[in-house]
Design brief:
Lambda Exonuclease, Chain A, elongated, 2 domains, about 25% strand, alpha/beta, about 45% helix, seven-stranded mixed β-sheet, binds iron/sulfur cluster
Amino acid sequence: MFDDDDMIMISALQHAMFCERQYALIHLEQIWAENRFTAEGEALHERVHRERHESRRLFREEYGMSARSLKFGLTGKCDLVEIWLDPNTKKPIRVNPVEFKRGRKKANDVDRVQLCAQALCLEETFSLPIEKGEFYYLQERRRVSADIDDDLRAKTVAITAQIRAINACEKTPIASYDKKRCDACSLIDYCMPKYATKSVRRYMQNQIKAGLTSLCESC
Ligand code: SF4
């Protein structure tokens, strides 16, 4: 069991899967910068979390619900949790996490791992098994079901272990430039991945050259 000081934010799993260095910059060095993707994602989640909680006789909707798991050391907010109640006891009998996404379905497992982490937390909160969750893709305006299966659970647990290993060594991994990934990263200006393997001298020469070019252009 983990205690409150040793929790990993569910959002951190996404950062670590995207890039371990990005995870360390955000969560160890407390560096954050917005770009279009992060700003749009943030605005979407704020809007979702402000939605009213709906309640019918045997069904509840909780937007922006906080959840945590002491067993896995995870904590975070779920966009929407749908809860079905037993007609006799009025206790929850089924729980369905729904994660809202701005874009389309991703080819990789990043979103599924985030949903699985929410499911692990909600299973502990409600003492109920959760075998499925859903995504709501705004661009496509449709819900997509996702299995919370053993493989996904193992992957999610492995990523939390990977994060704990980064935390334990307290070292930010060295950058490695990958055009597709880094050009979409909001931290590229802090990270400077193109210069990670170049010498400081070469870096300074490039900076001076770039400065002189922009000076000449403004003459
Ligand atoms: S710029 Fe690239 S290497 Fe640096 S944090 Fe972002 S994704 Fe990782």
